[in-house]
Structure formats: structure tokens, C-alpha cells
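During the reporting period, our protein records have gained a C-alpha cell line. One record among many is quoted in full directly below:
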Amino acid sequence: MTKRVAILISGGGSNMVSLVEDMTGDHPARPVLVLSNKPDAGGLAKAQARGIPTAVVDHRPFGSDRAAFEVALNRVLDQVRPDIICLAGFMRVLTEGFVQRWDGKMLNIHPSLLPKYKGLHTHARAIEAGDAEAGCSVHEVTAELDGGKVLGQARVPVLPDDTPETLAARVLVQEHDLYPKILRRVAEGDRSRLDLT
């Protein structure tokens, strides 16, 4: 049975596009919704151009009331009944209640080799630490920020003249390769780890 996938974004949606473009042919999943917390997110137009339904739940009217924001999120998600939710540059920290509601169904891509550098500014932190390599991780979403089971990683070398921007650009290429591979495996029922070199 084909899995229904909802993708949550906050920005340009480049990872969303890589996921959607892979979900063709005999793929075990199909995109049913691209949802953003920002009405001006560039990824919304990219999804619409590909014929994917879109929705916006603007977080700003809710202020600091994350629970109320998530009630609105769930109202939209329940309409499309996703089997898998992919966070793809969705820049809102989700509460434990929301994560438990979708337990086992949520994936996230994070631009570091977890468990290193949870949270923000991952590339700058890798450079400052003198790391020889950086990369990205796809993990299951749990109540702990960037703390769920890692399902796959891809690595890139940190070059002597790297800036956070140049490193981020190389890692992003790997994100676009890794995330679709992991989604396909999860949709097939395979949650074993995949490491790309």
C-alpha cells in the first residue's frame, strides 16, 4: 500500500523538492501535502508547480502558545492522514505532545553528524571545533531535539578554507541525496541505518 507523505517546510524547500522528485514511478510513497508555518515560504510555490496540495499554518498569531499552534497543525494534517511526516527545513521546535501524537511517523534531516551539533549553527560549530569532516543525518523525531534514532548519514570533508556557507553548500548536496533514500527505505518498512560516503 502506498504511503502518504506530508512535508513540513519553513523556507525555500530544496529538500522538499528532492523528496518529491524521487516519489515517482514505483516509489512506495506519494506526497499528499506540503505545509509551511510561513506564508511566504518559497517552497510553497515549488510544491504548487508540481501539483502538490499546500497549506499554511502561520505560527505568528499564536505567539508563544506552541500547543495552540500545533492544534492548528494537527487539524490540517488530520485532513490528509499522512503515514509519514517529513520535516524538511521546518524551523519550529515541536512539543512532546505533538511528537507523541505522530510517534514513529516523523523524520527530520539535520545538517550535522548527530549526535554532534544538535540545534543551530552546525557548520560554524564544526569548523570552530577543527573537525575533519561534517555532514548530515536523517533521524526519527522524538521529544528530544535532534535526538531520535539516526537512520542514515552522509559525510563531507571540512576543507582548510571552508566558511560556514561553503561547508553548508556541500552538505546540502548530500542532504538532497540522503533524505530521499531514507524516505524510500522507511516507506518500504526498512529502518536499518544507511551511511553514504
